[in-house]
Task: inverse folding
């Protein structure tokens, strides 16, 4: 499926053509020079269904913990809609470690999903590898129970919430 993308915009969102961007890394023609470029190319590998690249760019020290069939299934069973890089820390060409916070947007079936993660990368012998990822939990917790629309308004007016402050 990789070849189908060659003349299209790169799925990583760089603005370049795929053949001039992430395909250079996925095809093995070049190595990603920064942690962010490795992150972008790993995302693109999911889009173009190249799970072997995702596997091969995982840190060799923990690669045995990775399930290639799981990566393949996620890649093939999802419709990838875009990548947003939220922040980077280190990970430049002269660094040996780096972090990239990103949000990958995709749908699985008819449900939209957002994978928000901070990924850690390590450079070994001049090559960047994905080391670990921590999901970012954006769950909002209320200090008090939610006020229902038919509950009395908490302002004390005596009206229903929907007729008062809930407007």
Result:
């Amino acid at each position: 499926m990789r070849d189908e993308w060659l003349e299209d915009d790169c799925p990583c969102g760089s603005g370049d053509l795929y053949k001039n961007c992430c395909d250079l890394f996925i095809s093995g023609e070049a190595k990603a020079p920064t942690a962010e470029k490795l992150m972008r190319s790993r995302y693109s590998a999911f889009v173009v269904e190249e799970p072997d690249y995702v596997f091969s760019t995982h840190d060799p020290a923990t690669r045995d913990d990775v399930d290639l069939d799981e990566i393949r299934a996620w890649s093939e069973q999802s419709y990838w809609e875009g990548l947003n890089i939220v922040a980077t820390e280190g990970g430049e060409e002269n660094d040996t470690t780096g972090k990239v916070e990103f949000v990958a947007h995709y749908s699985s079936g008819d449900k939209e999903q957002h994978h928000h993660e901070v990924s850690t990368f390590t450079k070994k012998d001049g090559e960047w590898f994905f080391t670990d990822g921590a999901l970012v939990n954006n769950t909002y917790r209320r200090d008090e129970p939610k006020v229902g629309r038919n509950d009395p308004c908490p302002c004390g007016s005596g009206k229903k919430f929907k007729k008062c402050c809930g407007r």
User: Anything to note?
Assistant: The chain is about 20% helix and 30% strand. The mean pLDDT is 91. Strands lie at 79-90, 97-108, 111-124, 127-135. Residues 35-47 form the longest helix (13 residues).
